[in-house]
Amino acid sequence: MWSFIVRRLLIMIPMMFFISVICFVITELQPGDFVSQYLDNPRISPAQIELLRKNLGLDEPAHVRYWNWIKGIVTRGDFGYSFAFQRPVGELIWERMGWTIFIALGAIVFQWILAVPMGIYSALHPYSFGDYTLTVIGFIGVSIPDFFMALILMYLMLQMGAASVGGLFSPQFVGAPFSLAKFVDLLKHIWVPLIVVGMSGLAGLMRVMRGNMLDVISSPFVTSLRAHGLDEKTVKKHAIKNALNPMVSIAGTELPNVFSGTIIAAIVLNLPTMGPFFYNALLNHDQYLVMTFLMFIAIITQIGNLLADIALAILDPRIRMS
Amino acid sequence: MRRIFLLILAVLFTAMLMAAPFVEDTLLTPDPNPKMGGTLYLALTGSPQSFNFYGTLDNNAYTVVGQMLTGLVEAHPVTSAIRPALAESWVVSENNKEVTFHLRDVKWSDGVPLTADDVIFTFKYFIMNPVARGNSVDRFTIEAQPIEWVKVDDSTVKAILPAPYAAFFTVLSHAYIYPSHALEDKIDKDRPDSVNDLWLTNTPPSEIPANGPFVLSEYIIDQKVVMTKNPNYWKVDSHGNKLPYVDKVEYIIVSDAQVRLAKFMAGELDYMAVSGNDFPILKERELAGGPFRVFLAEPTQPTPSPIHIAFNFDAENPKLREVFKTTEFRQAMEYALDRERIIDEVYNGLAVLGGVPVLPSNKAFYNPKIEEIRRPFNLAEAARLLDELGFKDVNGDGLREYPDGSKFEFVLTLQSSPQEYQDIAYIYSQDLLSIGIKVNLQILDSSLTGQMFGAGSFEAGLRAFGNQPDPQLRKAIWQPGTQLYYWHRTTRDPETNLPIFENMLDWEKRVYELFELGQVAMDHAVRKTFYDEWQEIYAEYLPVIFVCKGMNLYAANKSLGNVEQNEEGLLSYASWTVFKK
């Protein structure tokens, strides 16, 4: 087991290196650089633009900039400076990590809490009215783009006379010390992002759960349990446990999805997560910020997969690590 | 005894004089019974990138800093007239080359007095520091020589100008004074660009003293910027109340325009700019009894920039180059521009015919004569001019050919957003097609069009540049031979950045001269004659064809007092004079 984990972690190093090269090349292909947005600004003279470009090191060839960036990370753990904020990139991302993780985990929990029972119900009552209804609900979630769902929800709230739309708190509670009133205000807001972010993955998860469940239910092992005279409740318990295993491997890919797949929704919902921040950095050509964020997503994906594999090994005795 | 009494009286009198606060214009405080206190909620379109005005190039940062700091003089928020701010008064010398400022007796928000040292410090390390990111070196340099600042005594500073400089007070209104007591020892004197690292977004707000109406009190990352009333602000209203009226201003950071609108309608925001698309919805809701007022005001601001159409005098195709340089051709092109229809259909009627580019609301500089010169939409006249130039349909395909019989068409380059750009280009190209001119629209991402215009690699272009209260501030666009005079790049040497006069047309030479004259003349009436002539030349020779200018659209919650629109159509609003009813 440990040698497996160590081996997986070691493989990540060259993987991250290749990913960083690809990402860097892609950000380089974007026309213009951070300074080009100021070319049209009559307040800024051409001499100043040249100076800025030189100070930011943008006059260096791409491979030199890439090398300096990687060297900074490896030797000093320094992910570079944000051109726009003039502060270390790591610091800026770290400041925004809290709410990002909170919403990501919240959305995943929301998905799972709904998807698993929905899948089980559908599988136990296949082709019934309930099965079709749940499927329709799930597919609505998949087919409506999350930003659009966010707009619709906000419109409905506004129509119903809500005094606060978007964000996680009403303005007076943003930054206020924690209190019961603040918590209640959070509850009033948080359901919208959870639904919007969570709904998109819901149908997928539910269908996987339903499929697994149907497979397991009709497998010889369940027939044999029944043949042993176990009551239906115990049979279902065993079936559900077995059907959950494949779900665990999906869990690994959910995390990066929630981090990066909801950028537009986060902008529309005015969430203080990394999504909108990353989007602005992309528009701004704030290269090291973009690169660091991409690397972060890459590492999250890999770690997520590793954790899912480990969890699967623990849960399913048939899987051996070698 | 009598002498002591007189002395006391004299001291008291001087103290009163020195402490005389600035009484705010009643235009901004029409309500005689303002209510004190409360929080004003405003929107910010993105997170500020810094709190250092001179260390960043970010508009959101400028908005926030604009509430905390002021300069020696300031522009009236409604009329843009220059008036005293941190300087109580000033004297201009006979030769127009020395201005002596007498500073108001002002304390920073942390209680330290503001002195001449602060002014000198600000100019030395920030405004005139070429490596400060948001410096203003160019604006305070005349004929390649910097303006010099001298301390006379603690409350007097003198500016020595190398030559008379008319826009001096206008540029000064954007020069915020910084606190030397809070910053001087934080600057690395060996590394002048270290000033950019001051007051970044991780600075504790208590380290940022203010001399404006508000003090930064809290920044919650990506969510809001909170500012509280500066107890030492030096303005009062005409009833003697200390300004500002509200206790707090909270900038809620909302990057999506639709969400800003939703938040405004839900009452989470008190005041905001409205886009032309949202105006009808808001107006409808207002008339249906919504809790807000919507204003359609005469445009006064540089933004949104008015759109213009340019024909590249240096187009790669030599035949096009010749045509585009021909004045009559550009005049024909103006006749073909249906401004009224564009205002109606593209702007929902929420735009006015602008200037060239001075706004009609700019009483100080607008020359109404351009309205007579401006060519109204007249396709027949456009066709006649084109006929005269020899562009006729020779082969009977409905499209005009060059006089030599070859195919005549050109590409109009524009950016894909905002949508107005595409709509205008489409209407224009259809009208041109109806008189036999084929225009190929090239709609690209703004970063690409920016590069193309910058490199002069386009044929015709649709673009926008801002208006300014003083034409001098946009010299870099409208004067031939400058960096942004992009439709005639060969008037500027890219190596030396100097103008090349032999490449200028005669009227361009005159425009060049007029801007130079307007820069050094100090008498407003004299300056106006120069800029009047410039506007007439622009209207006549059309280096670019201005389309129209979007109006100022704002919405204010009904609970907000002292937001009014006057008879001239100007909207008065200032964060330090509004109050919550």
Describe this protein with a few key phrases.
heterodimer, A: 322 residues, mainly alpha, 13 helices, B: 581 residues, alpha+beta, five-stranded mixed sheet, four-stranded mixed sheet, 17 helices, 28 strands, 20% strand, globular
Helix content of chain A: over 70%
Structural class of the helices, strands and pairings of chain A?
mainly alpha
Q: Report the largest inter-chain contact.
A: A-B, 49 and 60 residues
User: What summary fits the major beta sheet of chain B?
Assistant: 5 strands, mixed
End-to-end separation of chain B: 52 Å
Distance between the termini of chain A: 8 Å
Quaternary organisation of the protein chains: heterodimer
Provide a count of the helices of chain B.
Answer: 17
- The chain-level mean pLDDT of chain B equals 91
- Rg over alpha carbons of chain B: 26 Å
The H/E string of chain A reads HHHHHHHHHHHHH
Q: Tell me the fraction of residues in β-strands of chain B, as a range.
A: 15-25%
Low-confidence stretches of chain A: none
Q: Give the overall silhouette of chain B.
A: globular
- Computed over alpha carbons, the radius of gyration of chain A is 24 Å
The neighbouring-strand order within the major sheet of chain B is 20-19-21-17-22
- What is the overall number of helices of chain A? 13
Q: Determine the strand fraction of chain A and express it as a percent band.
A: under 5%
Descriptive overview:
The complex is a heterodimer of chains A (322) and B (581). By secondary structure, chain A is mainly alpha-helical. Helices cover 74% and strands 0% of the residues of chain A. The longest helix of chain A is centred in the middle third of the chain and has 38 residues, at 180-217. The radius of gyration of chain A is 24 Å and the shape is globular. The model of chain A has no long low-confidence stretch (mean pLDDT 86). Chain B is of the alpha+beta class and 581 residues long. Chain B is built from 17 helices and 28 strands. Mean pLDDT of chain B is 91; it is low at 11-17.
